[in-house]
Structures are given as C-alpha cells and as structure tokens.
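name: query_chain
kind: protein
chains: 1
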Amino acid sequence: MSISATTGRLCTAARRTLAIILLSSGLAMFGAHPTLFDRSTTYALAISALAAAWGGFLLTCRNVRTSALPPTALLGPSSVLIGSAALSILFNADAAWSNILPLVAQLLLLWLGWWLAAENGSLSLLGGGLLAGTVLIGLHALLQHWNLDPPAASCLFR
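structure:
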C-alpha cells in the first residue's frame, strides 16, 4: 500500500471522526432541555472535544498536517481578528481574557467546516444527521404543543 493511499484513508477517517463529534454535539445542543442539561456546558464540551481530536490528529499525522491546517487565506484574517480582540481586552480594564474564548471557538468551527468540506462523505453525514435531529426536535416541539412533553417544563408559558 502506498503512502498516499494510507494518508488519504487517514484523512478520511479523521474527517469522519470529527464530523461524528460535531454531529453528536450539535444534536445534544439542539435537544438541550433546560431540565436535562445546560447548553453552555455542552458547547464548551463540544469545542474541547473537537479541539482535542483535531489537535491529536495534527500531532500524530505529521505527513498530512498541511492538508488539515487552514489555508493562509483563513489564517491572516483570523490572526487580525484575534489580535484586535486581544488588544481590546488588554486596554480595557473591565474585560476578562476568558471573553476571547467564544471567538476562538467560532474560528475553530470555521476552520473545521473548511476542512470537512473537502470530503463529501463527511458533509452528507453531517447534513443527514442534523436533518434527522431537527425532525426529532420538531416532533418534540409538537408534543410540547399538545401538552405531551415527557420532561417536565422548566418554564411555564401562559
């Protein structure tokens, strides 16, 4: 088996793994019922899992690192954006450095989307899974409308 075939399989497996992590965390955020779990915690866990998985892929697969890193067309504007946010936090006494984390998380998702878009299998997995999840969430909304909601309501709407 050639190195390029192994590299291609590895890239495909990594993309599918990250697509599954992204899909499962997206569905968890879609279905985050206030009585079950918090969306912000789910978002933080999802970003952490995606960053760890992508970082692990980059560390273990040195021969495909260039295909997994964002192109310079994305790195330049991202660096300017993070740099300006960091300068703003630096000169604002009331701002906390933790406020930059949501911006970094959104850039991570942008880069991940760019990388996943290179393979149709990952895109169809994400699209099909999110469509199925939104149908289930829609059915749950109908159950709520008909007062047949299995989890107890945390807010009473009148």
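note: The mean pLDDT is 80.
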